[in-house]
Design a protein that fits this description.
One of its GO terms (molecular function) is protein-N-terminal asparagine amidohydrolase activity. Pfam families: N_Asn_amidohyd. Residues 321-349, 536-573 are annotated as: Disordered. The protein is of the alpha+beta class. It folds into 2 domains: 5-103, no CATH class; 139-286 and 349-560, 60s Ribosomal Protein L30, Chain: A, CATH 3.30.1330. 30% of the residues lie in helices and 22% in strands. It contains 16 helices and 25 strands. The strands form 7 sheets. The protein has an 8-stranded mixed β-sheet with strand order 10-7-17-16-14-15-12-22, sandwiched between helices. A 4-stranded antiparallel β-sheet has the order 1-2-3-4. A 4-stranded mixed β-sheet has the order 11-13-20-21. The radius of gyration is 29 Å and the shape is globular.
Amino acid sequence: MQSPIIQAPHQVLSILHSRTHNSNSLDACLEGLIKVELIHHNNSHLRTRIYFSNLLEYSQYFWAIGYNITALLTATTTTIYLPLLVLLLLLEEEEEDSMGGGGNTGMKKQQRCSSCHSLTSLCNENKMKHCQTQTKPELEPTALFLSSSPTSVSALGASTQVPQERLYLPRVGTAPCSLDVYLQSIPSVASRSQQLSCLSSKDNNQNNNMSTQRCLNVLQGEVAHATPAQTDVLVSAEATTCHIVALRSTQGPDSVPLGSIAHVDQAQVYNDCLEKMVQEHIQHHIKQHQQQHDDDFGFFMEDDDDDSDCDDDSYCDNHHNHHHNHQSTSSFLPPQVAPPPKRRHSSPNDTIKMELHIAGGYLDDEGTSQSISDNLVRTFSDLALKYEDQIQMSLSTAMISSMNTTTLTTDNQKKAPCSRGLALNTHTGLVTPIATSLPHELEGPAVEVRSARLWSQQRTPSLAVIHTADSVDGNITIDPFPYQPQPQLNALLRVDDTTLLQVASTSPQCESERFCSDLRRTLSFVNTVPASRVFGGKEQEPPRPLVYSRSANTLNQWEPTTRRPRSATVTAP
């Protein structure tokens, strides 16, 4: 039976001041204290519950003294449990006195460690052992920036202000916790994650909204790049321990944005693919600048040879660069009409502004999610440093692992991911969490073929690129890959769903309802449809990629095409 005892803040401070010589430090430690609630668990265990008026305001301070308070939050409240604070011991002693317990008899004298601020014995031998086992975090600056506003992106797209705050990360080997827990102590990062978490928990109709837009779905182990002219929304879902990485970049006021999404299912193995992901953005903006340069001079030369291309004035008015008549345009206008303003093209020297969004994972028992989280944050920190002369990368969203964990109230309070996917609007840069499975009409083409890649014998694991900014007509391309029938997989087709989940999933208690049916469909495809039937490649003919184009009749339906992509690779990955 629980017996709560409530004491007002001034009473708590009075108790503390009467038992310590350093009242100033206690005042600082309890700044913002509203209420302290003592709860007996089975009449024996005492815990202290502290409420703050603004949780995020104090999380950075408590990290500095050695406690990551936000990691101890429950999913539905801003209650903080700090059982190691000196407040606990003093209030515990006061409570024992009030209940006739005879004080704190037998309790060993303790003091707070000067480096990690945990309570240690006053015994010199124990103090020395404690200090030897503690690793003090050493923060170092990175080339990653924190977005200039908590939301990082608005309805107008990426933040127009230059991020001012540089992200500091613990030096490798000195972090007392995983990076997702550390990032949770940064107010802007935690606030952004909480906002997205609220969107995930609401019964919104994001899938219905996407059904009215051109969507490009990225499956596990894939990556896609697209411009607003090619697709409206890049999306990836069905992630539990997996992580979704989204990038969006711009260069100058009139540049063509590029968006990317990758579905990462392992740590470490995709570092080269993630670097190619960043390089794709750099090359895109280089090509854009070169194209603007060629269009300017090419238009001038064509005008000298033949004016027929510009017989229609409206055609010329729709182009912002009138180099063919820039010397005489103003003279033909009435005095009261100002010439059209010149539109500044991006310069190759302009810094590419890149927004980074990472979502996925949860606090799984095996720690798989946190390993991927750590790897992704470190990898993009390294990439931001490597390419800092060309890009300025901002960490806009880090809804990962501990910040993406909720509880399944229907299943004994088991932990589960709050968001299972991410959607990126290529026009605005706005990101939206995906909490459920996508409708079948948004999955995209050849799902069985693309899913079969996960069961193929790849020499080096890599992210399959299914779409780029150079893709003809926005076509999806599935490059050939080798796979062989695996008779042993037939056994998985005969087991029940519970067994299949335990064998084939890293998070069996969190998978969607359609996980087992989708997996059985993929396994059946691998064992019954040979690769030669899918990609060809008989005799001397090399395998051919599969190419799909959007249906002219249905927005998010895809049809196979015989048109060969410009830069399709036919070698196996």
